[in-house]
Amino acid sequence: MNEQTAVTQDTATEAPKKPVLPDAQKVLEVKHWTDRLFSFKVERPASLRFRSGEFVMIGLMGDPHPETGKQKPLLRAYSIASPSWGEEMEFYSIKVQDGPLTSKLQHIQPGDDIILRPKPVGTLVHDALIPGKRIWFFATGTGFAPFASLLREPETYEKFDEVIITHTCREAGELTYGRELIESLKDDELLNEVIGEGFWKKIKYYPTTTREESAKMGRITDLMKSGEAFADLGVEPLNPETDRAMICGNLAFNLELKDLFENTYGLEEGANSKPAHYVVEKAFLD
């Protein structure tokens, strides 16, 4: 009798089990950079292989349906910020208070599970570009994420003599994630060993802000049109003979750069199936 009572009590006090997420991966680390931006790392599935610059679908379960109680996954395309050789997977996200996914995702903690669909795709890969001497990475906001991957990819430095990364944000604090990552490359013993001592000297970093006062203010497209960006960097304007480029930003930014590339600099858009001078990540929305 006593034994039976004990079993009943243990059962009654058991915490309700959390629903098992499909394609679940455990959150390892979360870091909040500003009140609008955060990054997080999750376990990498042993079978998942990707090319630096690609993205995957990640998410959480939505709220239960008021009538049926059923839940559907809320998924969004996220560029992988970690390099292809990394043992963990890193992501960089904006917080949208009323966003269906990010309103929930911003509250994740180490130990939580998220959905990670193991099917990486994307156009911001070296395979989509023909050989050149200099590569440009153009980002706004969290569009820096795929370049965080490519800046730690040995192939980037094997294929190009110079790597220029421009990052345009509204406020100076929004540049912190990218700036700290680039600074960390100097002391990364593994990368210096694998790629070559001082590989980071090939990088030219050009951060700008559009609202808050900073060392360099202005939209990168305006700074290119005026020639100021090229003068600051000490380089010639883009040339199809030598320059290759990747774009990851908001839609207006993407379209403006696309127009500049094609009608001012004579660059042709490439794809995995037909490599050319530049590529755009169309799945990204800042």
TrEMBL record:
Keywords carried by this UniProt record: FAD, Flavoprotein, NADP, Nucleotide-binding, Oxidoreductase
GO annotation, biological process: cellular response to oxidative stress; heme catabolic process
Molecular function, one GO term: nucleotide binding
A family per Pfam: NAD_binding_1
Domain of life: Bacteria
Enzyme Commission number: 1.18.1.2
Gene3D superfamilies: Nucleotide-binding domain of ferredoxin-NADP reductase (FNR) module, Translation factors
InterPro entries (UniProt xref): FAD-bd_FR_type (IPR017927), FNR_bac (IPR033892), FNR_nucleotide-bd (IPR039261), FNR_type-1 (IPR051930), OxRdtase_FAD/NAD-bd (IPR001433), Riboflavin_synthase-like_b-brl (IPR017938)
Domain FAD-binding FR-type, chain residue ranges per copy: 20-127
CDD domains documented for this protein: FNR1
Family: Belongs to the ferredoxin--NADP reductase type 1 family.
Name listed for the protein in its UniProt record: ferredoxin--NADP(+) reductase
